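hey
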């Protein structure tokens, strides 16, 4: 799948994967869903689910490092600023041969790498982010999308990115 196809599919994911409501219970369920997939596959990831400014679920699985914690923080900053997935922002920048640094955003605070996805609530907008770090960026993104699909009752086969 090429860049334009990925851009279109990520935009579809961002539009379709919205919660009817989002609270602490939903955050915990989402975090548990991501964690269950990661444990089942023995993936070394950090998982963070939050409303902006309020962490609601966090875990670091075996094989992760403090670097993963920093990647999570930087990816969340991208979602908070652009209200798009960090992967979608990165793909959009790549399509324009642009970068966050060129836009004056320091790499010490922002990372447009896959793995952070906006938590959108129908009728309310973007209220937080679910973030994974530890895998290649496309895999981080897809793990989050798969968990969201399972939790929201959406067909992951129709939402996932095509093969590269």
């Amino acid at each position: 799948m090429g860049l334009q196809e990925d851009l279109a599919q990520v935009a579809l994911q961002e539009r379709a994967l919205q919660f009817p409501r989002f609270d602490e219970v939903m955050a915990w369920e989402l975090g548990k869903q991501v964690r269950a997939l990661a444990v089942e596959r023995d993936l070394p990831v950090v998982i963070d689910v939050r409303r902006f400014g309020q962490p609601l679920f966090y875990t670091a699985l075996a094989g992760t490092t403090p670097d993963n914690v920093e990647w999570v923080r930087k990816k969340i900053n991208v979602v908070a600023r652009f209200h798009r997935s960090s992967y979608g922002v990165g793909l959009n920048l790549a399509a324009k041969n642009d970068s966050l640094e060129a836009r004056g955003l320091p790499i010490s605070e922002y990372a447009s790498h896959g793995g952070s996805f906006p938590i959108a609530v129908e009728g309310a907008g973007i209220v937080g982010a679910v973030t994974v770090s530890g895998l290649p960026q496309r895999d981080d993104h897809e793990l989050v999308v798969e968990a969201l699909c399972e939790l929201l009752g959406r067909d992951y086969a129709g939402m996932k990115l095509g093969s590269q």
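The longest strand covers residues 125-133. Residues 14 and 129 are 12 Å apart (CA to CA).
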